[in-house]
Amino acid sequence: MDKKVRNTAIVSVIISILLILSVVLLINGLEKGKTSYPTVPGAAENVETQTASEEDKSFLNDTDFLDEYQPYAGEIRDDGKQKLSLLISSVERDLRVRVIDEDGNSVEGEKFYITVEGIGEYKDLDADGYIYIAGIKPGSYYVSLQDVDDYEVPEKVKVSVKDKIEFAKLDDISYLIKTEDEIDAEAEDTANHEVEADATEHTGAWNDKQNAVLGIDVSKWNRNIDWEAVKASGVEFVIIRCGYRGSKTGALVEDPYFKQNIEGATKADLKVGIYFFTQAINQSEAIEEASMALSLIEGYDLDYPIFIDTEGSGGRADSLDTATRTAVCQAFCETVESAGYKAGVYASRNWFYNKVDDDMLSQYSIWVAEYREEPLYTGRYDMWQYTSSGQIDGIEGRVDLNLSFADG
């Protein structure tokens, strides 16, 4: 081989060696920079992985690890159905069933059917979410709500029907209380004063009556009141209407001015009591009325009693006999007193004589209405409404004036 050929061969070998070394170095560099991933179902089998400890592999046993959505504890899955519950109570041989939603509100607009096992089926005819069943024998029963489209109904509920009435506040009474926006107030709020009066009726502020203090009673009919002016006029107490039962339907309705009145009177440092205009036709309804009054005064302090106002209205309770009306007043007062408040009865002299048994009510505070110089009522009384035509600064128009002989 001549010298030129030999040199060419040597150069070729050197170049080949350099090329091989470059390739080896390049491959090693790529291997060192490669990232490894854990095996995931569905991935190619030849993907290189790192060795994991048993603790690192624990997630593979978690069946929910790769779930797209996991609800947190207590969350309700959105399946398009609204969950319902039954709120059930008994006063005396009856059941009061309320259908409520997840927020605790009555469900209206649906004519629900409930079944009382061994008794029968009952329908919410007026679709207000409330069903009342009377005349049930005392004992335990299962109550269930029949299936309704777009709702998840609860499991059947075991309830006890009481044999004897208990004079205690009903915890679920708030579900029955309506505002005047929900009813026909003109047809429902129909109390009319049938009070005996004569020419000696005193219509001025009687501030100098011996052993008595001057007060007023108010309701929505007195509209907006300047309570500071009322206080400055010499008035020392006020009895505020908190609500009424409708004369036609029997709905329980809050007086639209109640909260405004009790807050204004309290701020003006007047002593306060409340009254409820009754249209109860039995003791169970009287307990409802007392429960409503007790519910509405939560958060407020009272100095005077909670009165039941019984008088004519041309409504559902006008035809009650004396014994039943007296029992209604007793049930109201007993329920109020069971909650730790003082109770009383308001009526005209005629009603105390002829519409209730005043001897049966003498243990409560008595508030008599009679419009003359001195009342002719011979029974004991603590308060006297002496006119409905009074004039007091801070109140536009006429207002009822009263004297209290028992200061609170």
What is the topology?
Layout: H1 3-32, E1 82-83, E2 85-89, E3 94-100, E4 113-116, E5 120-123, E6 130-134, E7 139-145, E8 151-152, E9 157-161, E10 177-178, H2 185-188, E11 213-218, H3 227-232, E12 237-245, E13 252-254, H4 258-267, E14 271-277, H5 283-296, E15 306-309, H6 322-338, E16 343-348, H7 349-354, E17 365-369, E18 383-390, E19 399-404
Parallel strand pairs: 1-8, 10-13, 11-12, 12-14, 14-15, 15-16, 16-17, 17-18
Antiparallel strand pairs: 2-3, 3-6, 4-5, 4-7, 7-9, 11-19, 12-13, 18-19
Helix pairs in contact: 5-6
Walkthrough of the structure:
The relative contact order is 0.11. Helix content is 21%, strand content 24%. It is an alpha/beta fold. The chain starts with a helix and ends with a strand. The chain has helices at 3-32, 185-188, 227-232, 258-267, 283-296, 322-338, 349-354; strands at residues 82-83, 85-89, 94-100, 113-116, 120-123, 130-134, 139-145, 151-152, 157-161, 177-178, 213-218, 237-245, 252-254, 271-277, 306-309, 343-348, 365-369, 383-390, 399-404. Strand 11, helix 3 and strand 12 (237-245) form a beta-alpha-beta unit. The chain folds into 2 domains: 82-161, Immunoglobulins (Immunoglobulin-like, Sandwich); 173-404, TIM Barrel. Strands 11-12-14-15-16-17-18-19 form an 8-stranded mixed barrel. It contains 7 helices and 19 strands.
